[in-house]
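stage 2 :: seqdesign
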């Protein structure tokens, strides 16, 4: 098995693993913001113990540390909104919104990288969104949950694009360490606003108390998903473009729905589900083929132009 194939297999395994996150979030009896704080705190402490030497500030410039910590704000927004989406709707609806990441990347990546957009990227992304819409058309009663998930996907797209750049500059676990630190700082700063503007009006207070099972699940979220899967996800982007990564992540609703059916008996297995799944799979497997075709087409065009120029030069020489 070639290294490229192994990378794609690893990507699919990480996507399969991460599709369980909304279901796990629903199993934990802690509100979204408190859960985000506990998850980022646990992940940061674990990473501090595991890679404190590799991530020592003296090994990096202040600018590099600032950028990695700053990108933690995107982690805070992306994870926070996905948690809220799951809590106010269902695991399936949350995954619908988050799966629009590939569509946002198809628009944002060309703008941020200052290069021309590829029309087939938008077409493939739209096809994926159509598949997602068909799958969950019956679940659109959860309007707010879907809207929050889609807004979170915008920040997820920005995070994916940014991580693709960081993956070529730093060790994946070091990037994860500083981003967890940035996410923890962002969540901590947000807690007072969350308390005074959201909890106090409803006569509530922070809810950090949970059962031993909940704390075990939070530690699992931190270690398995926030450290291992997240770091592997970043390292994968050294060789796979952000749009392809996000497009494969569109399989999250399919895997996540299966998890939701097993854990919560969510009933979404209908004809629309299979039609939508077919469109999603078509998008996932068509994009690499189209991408390679376009690269080869451009390469052949350049080679043909070079051949034409050479033949013209030969004709000029013969004429002289």
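stage 2 :: out
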């Amino acid at each position: 098995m070639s290294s490229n194939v192994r990378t794609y297999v690893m990507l699919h395994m990480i996507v399969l693993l991460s599709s369980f996150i909304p279901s796990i979030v629903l199993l934990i009896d802690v509100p979204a913001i408190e859960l985000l704080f506990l998850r980022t705190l646990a992940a940061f402490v674990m990473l501090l113990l595991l890679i404190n030497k590799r991530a020592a500030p003296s090994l990096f410039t202040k600018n590099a540390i600032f950028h990695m910590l700053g990108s933690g704000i995107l982690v805070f927004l992306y994870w926070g909104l996905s948690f809220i989406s799951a809590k106010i709707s269902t695991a399936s609806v949350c995954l619908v919104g988050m799966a629009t990441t590939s569509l946002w990347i198809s628009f944002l990546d060309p703008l941020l990288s200052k290069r021309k957009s590829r029309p087939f990227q938008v077409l493939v992304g739209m096809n994926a969104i159509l598949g997602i819409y068909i799958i969950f058309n019956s679940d659109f009663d959860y309007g707010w949950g879907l809207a929050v998930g889609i807004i979170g996907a915008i920040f997820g797209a920005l995070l994916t694009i940014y991580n693709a750049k960081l993956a070529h500059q730093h060790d994946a676990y070091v990037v994860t360490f500083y981003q967890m630190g940035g996410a923890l700082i962002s969540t901590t700063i947000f807690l007072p606003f969350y308390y005074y503007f959201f909890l106090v009006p409803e006569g509530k207070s922070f809810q950090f108390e949970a059962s031993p099972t909940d704390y075990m699940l939070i530690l699992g979220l931190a270690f398995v998903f926030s450290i291992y899967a997240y770091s592997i996800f970043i390292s994968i982007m050294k060789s796979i473009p952000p749009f392809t990564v996000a497009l494969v992540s569109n399989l999250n609703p399919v895997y996540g729905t299966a998890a939701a059916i097993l854990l919560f008996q969510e009933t979404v297995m209908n004809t629309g589900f299979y039609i939508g799944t077919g469109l999603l799979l078509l998008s996932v497997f068509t994009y690499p083929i189209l991408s390679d075709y376009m690269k080869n087409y451009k390469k052949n065009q350049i080679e043909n132009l070079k051949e034409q120029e050479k033949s013209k030069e030969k004709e000029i020489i013969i004429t002289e």
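stage 3 :: structure notes
- Residues 28 and 214 are 5 Å apart (CA to CA).
- The mean pLDDT is 83.
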